[in-house]
């Protein structure tokens, strides 16, 4: 089936977001089943009318891939929900499946193939979105299903409606970028994933995403700043900038990344309640802006964290990949940001076994990772993607690729990036629930994951915590004070986070994360990472407050008494889900004091008394009969 042109009677600008087109304006392939028996009038009258009314069905959405894909799914969910469709996490209960796909690696596309097969077996109407149909529209698995392209997500309601009628719809043309103000249903209501551009300027020999997302297309600075203002009013507490290459932003419209970042930062609340996370950026396009980007990363409302993929520690392999930078240029990015931004954390990516990679090339990669001991390294084996230049190159034997991947993973997992944090006091921003259902997930200014035991009402807030123990992938903390309104925080917190004065950020100061726009600052929560030491009186005061609060909530108190035991069970696989091995937290359960034993004894006596009363009432009722 050929690609369908978007047709509008009278104009070619496309329909407004949320509006539906008549059937003759959407390209469809009407499906006919000659073997399907005809329904008699009685059968037709018994057919539930609600199942035929557009907007009354239930939709299951499955998303593969990056944060940009996640944002696209949230936009599609928002439009469907606004039109009346129900959203379900249960594929069995859904009337239609919407599958948003990823083409970066073979395993993700294989997972898509499996899900499509299951949907067809279950006779579910299917709509496939994302990079696979956009970049490989003729793959066999897409036969007989509807397709919506990456720049056609504002037409998802039309596609779903026609698919539910039994039509096959295919919308793949690239026109203007989808509007940023489309309805949206966020997976996490406190996190806005904001796409700042689509596509990229690169031509990496292994990359299939370029085939799907295309050449660079940037949103305007004003539209993005306006979106930030809107989502903050909606209660969002974290904004993630997302794209295929954040560093390339604006080069197609005459601006650059620092201009955008400064415009967005200007919209962030001054109380520090909403944080900004800058997305993945390749080295070539930030080399000329390192100082400006470092200044933004020092801002109190911006996480001191950046994802900069290196892919290989060998210049020869980087050339074969057509990455357009050298290892030394990557080192310049890391060294400069680490020097200029206190507490800076950098994540990177490595591809093991790229075609032509020798033992020497791989050794250079291992040495690079050992030299920097990155806290986060995403390690993957090379997967040849159809239609890419690398797919035609001579491959490294698969057993060697796997062996190199295992070796580099062992090197990486031996690092202890969070050693030394125990006992430190940090400010964190809390936005999620851990997979164990017990801990909440927060992040420090340096984007270190902190797990705390606290009420769900703390989601969307900021807090001062004391780090109690560290693991390989995250640290555990204990809440000292919640900062619901930073501008009204108590004097004890101000004292806690401003014990020392620090000089301007151009001078060495490990705990300062001052904005370059400000005067010499105090190491407070609005200006620093919160690494200063508490005075003894503050510690005692806060310990007393916590003990009083815990005793008012017996369940919370019992959980905290056993936090060391819980740590042993949750350190593996919490929140990130991608790491394989976790260290076990050390420590034994605290011994119970006299008051503790008395409380527990009272609880047990109460339970037995209640049971006895129920038994007595039961016998009394029976005897009265």
UniProtKB/TrEMBL annotation:
Give the CDD domains listed for this entry. Answer: Radical_SAM
Where is the chain membrane-spanning?
598-619
The name of this protein is: Threonylcarbamoyladenosine tRNA methylthiotransferase
Q: Which residues form the MTTase N-terminal domain?
A: 57-165
Whether Methyltransferase counts among this entry's keywords is: no
Domain named Radical SAM core: residues: 186-419
The family annotation for this protein states: Belongs to the methylthiotransferase family. CDKAL1 subfamily.
Q: Which reaction does it catalyse?
A: N(6)-L-threonylcarbamoyladenosine(37) in tRNA + (sulfur carrier)-SH + AH2 + 2 S-adenosyl-L-methionine = 2-methylsulfanyl-N(6)-L-threonylcarbamoyladenosine(37) in tRNA + (sulfur carrier)-H + 5'-deoxyadenosine + L-methionine + A + S-adenosyl-L-homocysteine + 2 H(+)
Role played: Catalyzes the methylthiolation of N6-threonylcarbamoyladenosine (t(6)A), leading to the formation of 2-methylthio-N6-threonylcarbamoyladenosine (ms(2)t(6)A) at position 37 in tRNAs that read codons beginning with adenine.
Q: What is its EC number?
A: 2.8.4.5
Q: Which part of the chain is the TRAM domain?
A: 419-481
- Assigned keywords, A-Z: 4Fe-4S, Iron, Iron-sulfur, Membrane, Metal-binding, S-adenosyl-L-methionine, Transferase, Transmembrane, Transmembrane helix, tRNA processing
A Pfam family it matches = Radical_SAM
What is the source species?
Answer: Populus deltoides (Eastern poplar)
Checking InterPro entries in the record gives:
Elp3/MiaA/NifB-like_rSAM (IPR006638), Methylthiotransferase (IPR005839), Methylthiotransferase_CS (IPR020612), Methylthiotransferase_N (IPR013848), Methylthiotransferase_N_sf (IPR038135), MiaB-like_arc_euk (IPR006466), rSAM (IPR007197), rSAM_horseshoe (IPR023404)
Concerning Gene3D superfamilies, the annotation shows: Methylthiotransferase, N-terminal domain, tm_1862 like domain
Q: Which cofactors go with this protein?
A: [4Fe-4S] cluster
Cellular component (GO) terms are:
endoplasmic reticulum
